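ok so for the tutorial part 2 we go from a plain amino acid sequence to predicted structure tokens. step 1 is just haveing the sequence, like this:
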Amino acid sequence: MKTRNPRSRYHLDIKRNYKVLEVGGGHNPHPRSNMVVDKYIDSNYHRHSDLKVYKHQQFLEADGENLPFKDKEFDYSISNQVLEHTTDPEAFLKEQMRVSKRGYIEVPSVIGEYLFPKKAHKWLILELDNKLILMDKEKYWFNNGPDFGFLFLTWLQKTSIGYKILMDTKPNFMTVRYEWNDTIEFEINPQKDEYIKYFTSYWDEQMVKIFFPHKSNLHEFLESVKSFGNIIRRAFYGKYFLTSN
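step 2 — the prediction. this is what the tokens look like for a chain of 245 residues:
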């Protein structure tokens, strides 16, 4: 079941003694991962640059839909920007649950996918009713416009404090960040109109409030101040300061 939506992948509930698996570490593995697996070692089609593995990490070539590990071999698993690439997401998610007791999944939100689309992505994904909802991108995709990836993923991250605060206080704007324990609840290509509308329709006020509920000005101010403090800490101590909340 879902436990929470972490502020970022560096704010995960990972205990010091946990054995951590990362499926699809690619060019940016999580520094807390002990074992990193990747399906594609000779191609960068599914990532931005060459594979990277830290000195303290063990690497294994493996398919996330058929992992070579024992049941519950790991205390925690991380899957960052991988699920949307999978051929069989059901098999992938079931393998996460089989080999690990708990974990974290991060994927682009539907908003993020439309702002910076990737040809390698096969699925549009949202979290609704504490479940991951996956829709076939080929069936529901209608964006033939420009790709704003450099603007949102690189330029504003470098140049705009206001943008950083927005991303820190509204983490589900560009991504879905889903921490789970025991099981991952999901649906693939559901036929329910109340789910389909989020992939096909104009988002009215009621729909927007599902993901971005109204908060008081005081709450927004305090969240912004906290976010600004996080930005300063990252600037001085690097982005790999890990916390549990």
